[in-house]
Write a structure and sequence with these properties.
144 residues, four-stranded antiparallel beta sheet, five-stranded antiparallel beta sheet, 0% helix, single chain, mainly beta
């Protein structure tokens, strides 16, 4: 969407109901991102939540969250592919980062996508996200 206030714009949580590869270099997060302007870039934040104790729920107080930010400074659609190994431990301990600090993609039970703006009031930012895909062995390659 498009808004004119600063920082957190929107958030979508997705369950990950299947087990991922054990190698963080083999798991990729992929999606199409539509940027609307390079003048007022927005930020798309991707977050993966690991269920460290395998109880079926994520608890920020004792489990890990891994984040990756993409600055959307282009116009039009672009395929974004990020290996799980490039995600960083959450710097906000209230949302995660309290687990063993070891990337364990097979423990991922959920992910979130957030649209952020630079913390400058009055900037209109927008981005569209489509075709969210988790791939293994390499980035997603669309077949046309």
């Amino acid at each position: 969407g498009t808004v004119n206030w600063d920082y957190l714009i929107g958030l979508i949580d997705f369950p990950v109901p299947f087990s991922l590869n054990t190698n963080p270099d083999a798991v990729y997060f992929n999606c199409l991102v539509y940027g609307t302007t390079s003048a007022n870039p927005s930020i798309v934040l991707f977050q993966f939540k690991e269920d460290e104790n395998s109880d079926g729920t994520f608890s920020a107080s004792n489990e890990d969250e891994y984040d990756y930010q993409v600055t959307v400074d282009w116009e039009g659609w672009k395929l974004v592919s990020i290996p799980y190994s490039k995600f960083k431990p959450s710097s906000d301990l209230t949302t995660g980062g309290n687990g063993n600090r070891t990337k364990e993609p097979w423990k991922v039970t959920g992910m979130a996508v957030s649209l952020l703006s630079y913390p400058t009031p009055g900037l209109n930012v927008s981005a569209d996200i489509d075709y969210v895909v988790i791939s293994e062995g390499g980035p997603f390659v669309p077949k046309y």
